[in-house]
């Protein structure tokens, strides 16, 4: 198992397949983009599947989430999903995507073994979408969402970030739309993971702000017993249920005490937290050429050691907090 010294065990693996993206969201990266990883630095399809296999069969991982950058830009995505779905025990497999290209790939991904998707969508207004993402692709995202639902990649979850002066008034409209289309909406606080390092705590829309806005049109009551466990979202029944909305307060309502995640970057580095400043290199062990058995044992040892060193929290409230060198697009959501 991947256990740390604070009583937590990682069972959820987030795998970044690429640091590249076809949007330029203002809270993530500059308009001109970033310096992408060289092809030689990025894990091959075989290397990704091998690391996931070790995580599932040796380290107790039960959930695998493929992320990016934008994972639909990975040419071998469908094949990777198919091979991971053949593992025993079979993990639950999901995908976080901006939805561009999902209309074309959703049926193949479902056939390969993908269980569900999370699609990022911050606004329903074309002009705001263009201002936020610097691209005019809202129709593609909406088509991708519809295709995911039609293909059975359910529940289809929609992730939204509210930004001051752009879409901060749109929470009730987004929820009404999600309820009409049977999508599960989740609002996520903006996090200090932008490449520009322009995030400011006093400029963000908080979880409390979101809930107050939603309550101008809907009644909300806690779903379940109020204990979200390791789930990042606080979930609320809307108008008595059964439909729900989630709010992820990574900054103001952290869930570090129950975190069950471990992360693998596109270039083969283990990260114990989104905000970690340290990484453990598994790519070097994979490519060292020591033979399959010795390589697997070394990876198991390195991964377990990395997770034992996981910090008790994100450190966001510490005076010494500094953003990690990698932005979100290079870490994976």
Quickly name the level 1 CATH class. Answer: Alpha Beta
Q: Please give the number of β-strands.
A: 14
Helix content: 25-40%
C-alpha Rg, in Å?
Answer: 19 Å
Net shape: globular
Rounded mean pLDDT score: 92
So how many helices? 10
Per CATH, the superfamily is Aldolase class I
What would your notes on this structure say?
It is a single chain. A hairpin with a 5-residue loop joins β1 (2-3) and β2 (9-10). With 333 residues, the chain is α/β, with parallel strands linked by helices. It is built from 10 helices and 14 strands. It has one domain: TIM Barrel, CATH 3.20.20. The longest helix is centred in the C-terminal third of the chain and has 17 residues, at 292-308. 30% of the residues lie in helices and 17% in strands. The strands form 2 sheets. Strands 9-10-11-8-7-6-5-4-3-12-13-14 form a 12-stranded mixed beta sheet. The protein has a two-stranded antiparallel sheet with strand order 1-2.
Summarize this structure briefly.
The protein has 333 residues and is an alpha/beta fold. The protein has one domain (2-331): Alpha-Beta Barrel (TIM Barrel), CATH 3.20.20.70.
Write the layout of secondary structure elements.
Elements (H helix, E strand, L loop, with lengths): L1 E2 L5 E2 L1 E5 L28 H14 L4 E5 L9 H9 L6 E6 L4 H11 L3 E5 L5 H8 L4 H14 L5 E4 L10 H11 L2 E5 L18 H8 L5 E3 L11 E5 L5 E5 L12 E4 L4 E3 L8 E2 L1 H4 L5 H17 L19 H4 L2
Parallel strand pairs: 3-4, 3-12, 4-5, 5-6, 6-7, 7-8, 8-11
Antiparallel strand pairs: 1-2, 9-10, 10-11, 12-13, 13-14
Helix pairs in contact: 1-2, 2-3, 3-5
